Amino acid sequence: GLFVKMANIMMTEKRAWAMSQDQILLVQFLDATVAFDRTLHPIILSHLYNGGIEDDQCKYFQLLHQNASTHIKWNGKVSKSIIHEAVGNRQGGYSSADEWKVYGNPMIKDIELHSQSEDFMANVGANVIAIADDVAPCASADNPREVIHRMQLLLNIVEDHGIQNHIQFGTEKCKLLISARPGKIKAVEALLKEDPGILTFFDHPVNLVDDFYVHIGVPQSPRNQSRNAVEYCIKKGENMTYKLQASTLNSLCGVSPLSNRKMFLSYHQPSFLYGLDTMYVNTTDMSKLETKYRNPIKHMISMPDCVSSPLVYLTFGILPATAQRDLEILG
User: Fold this and answer.
1) How confident is the model over 282-296, as pLDDT tens digits?
2) Which residues contact 211 (CB under 8 A, 6 or more apart)?
3) What is the mean pLDDT of the chain?
4) pLDDT per residue over 49-70, tens digit each?
5) Which residue has the higher pLDDT, 139 or 106?
6) How far apart are CA 41 and CA 39, in angstroms?
């Protein structure tokens, strides 16, 4: 929702500022393994109490998790054995996201305390971007060795909090994004290749983002960000088309145009355009997306491929992909 967009706008602003100022920006995408299932209830209560939460609210959270258990229901029958839940906060529950924030915020605040002057770039005064359990510490400098040193400091902070709070990170899935001009990207890559131990996470050399890596909801790429993001959205949009409509793409099969339009606006359009309003997309890539975006509409209203694009959109009653993206950017 809104918070995902804000996080990606911050990421886009940081990357654009680094390019314009000839700086090197390192972003470490962290992947917490089954984060919600590993939260320890005493630590949550301790953070709540130390954070100034009133006694009644602390008592509520304590009773919420006290003697928590799970039964398995299958074919109308409930299991007699009980699974006791000593850890975890039931991801998807109405308070699970808030509890994880309480659990992970001390780590984020500690990272923020070690920010540098370059971290307050493009009016984005933060050296870490986080959405739920997706955390991305950022370090920037104009010297390759200096920026690697700063990132190692942030990773050491994450390691300490991971050990203290029993947060387990999948080191293979944690990726490092280098955002800079091509010459400086090669300089950082050369240093990491020459000495893999110069930047480690839990004693493992960091893995670089090769093509693109989906984090905080959208694909992040060191090169060709626009192309990779558009290809990712096209794949999501086409998969959604195949999943929802399959053989009913043609309205003659029984699906009315009104139902098709509602389905397109609810499912297809968000999949095709997800996250593109938070980043720069060039005209060539947007034209490619427009074609893929328009094709299922022609099938839905039984129009041949030779029909002009304006007629397709006017008949179906929606905006072109480019106009819809511009509208989301404005509002």
Assistant:
1) 899 999 999 999 988
2) 221, 228
3) 80
4) 777 777 777 777 777 777 777 7
5) 139
6) 6
Please state, in angstroms and rounded to a whole number, the distance separating the CA atoms of residues 98 and 103: 9
DSSP state of 71: -
CA distance linking residue 263 with residue 277, whole number of Å:
21
Which uninterrupted H or E stretch holds 218?
A: strand 218-220
Q: What is the DSSP letter of 202?
A: T
Quick one: average pLDDT of 103-127?
73
Contact present, 41 and 87 (Cβ < 8 Å): yes
State the burial class of residue 24 (Cβ atoms within 10 Å of its Cβ: 0-12, 13-18, 19+): buried
DSSP state of 264: I
Parallel, antiparallel, or unpaired for β 134-141 and 120-121?
unpaired
**b/e map 191-202, b = 16+ CB within 10 Å:** bbeeeeebbebe
Element containing residue 135 per DSSP (H, E): strand 134-141
Half-sphere exposure of 268 (CA within 13 A, CB side): 26
